[in-house]
Design brief:
Helices cover about 35% and strands about 15% of the residues. It is of the alpha/beta class. Helix 3 packs parallel to helix 4 and helix 4 crosses helix 5. The chain has a single domain, classed as Leucine Aminopeptidase, subunit E, domain 1. The radius of gyration is 15 Å and the shape is globular.
């Protein structure tokens, strides 16, 4: 059995209720809130998050910034890691990305994981970055996300546990299938 499989979990539900050290916010470049996961995290973290993020000056696509979790701290979430995923510009029918959409999405995972390591966070939860209003194809995004996380965990001790928190059961099944495939490719 591949020991990495014990460090990765796929679940469905509300990311703001998970018992992890940090949750990732699929943010927009302003970091001032929006819809979907971004709006849910801002509502759960409270007004201090918005006030804090006004001082950050935004965040470019593919990068990430870390903040306190504010009103989420009482349930054990210590930090929020805000990352800006790419807006999909590719051709869905041909499954071809444009303007290095894949690289920008991979960079989101890399920069979030780097921040988690720098802050010695034991656990982190990711939503399906860019798959909502940014229209990144879900299967493609799952392959990139799982691939980056498995590579990272194979070379780093922190975080020790990664959760992919999906909106629905179909999305979670997709992540589980990709994870199973990647684990079998790595010799598990």
């Amino acid at each position: 059995m591949n020991p990495l499989i014990d460090r990765i979990e796929v679940t469905t539900g509300d990311i703001t209720t998970l018992h992890v050290d940090a949750i990732v916010n699929a943010a927009n470049e302003s970091l001032l809130g929006g819809g979907g996961v971004d709006g849910a995290i801002h509502r759960a973290a409270g007004r201090r998050l918005l006030e804090h993020n006004r001082q950050l000056g935004g965040c470019p696509t593919g990068l990430a910034k870390i903040t306190p979790a504010f009103d989420l701290e009482p349930i054990g979430i210590k930090h929020l890691i805000h990352t800006v995923g790419p807006v999909w510009h590719g051709d869905d029918a041909l499954d071809i990305g444009a303007n290095d959409d894949d690289g920008a999405l991979a960079s989101c995972y890399d920069t979030c994981l780097t921040l988690a390591r720098e802050h010695r966070l034991a656990s982190i939860a990711f939503p399906a970055i860019s798959t909502g209003v940014y229209r990144f194809p879900k299967p493609r995004a799952a392959r990139i996300a799982v691939g980056r996380v498995v590579d990272w965990l194979g070379n780093n001790g922190h975080p020790r546990h990664v959760v992919f928190c999906c909106f629905g059961a179909d999305d979670a099944d997709g992540y589980r299938q990709v994870l199973s495939s990647v684990m079998s490719d790595t010799g598990a």
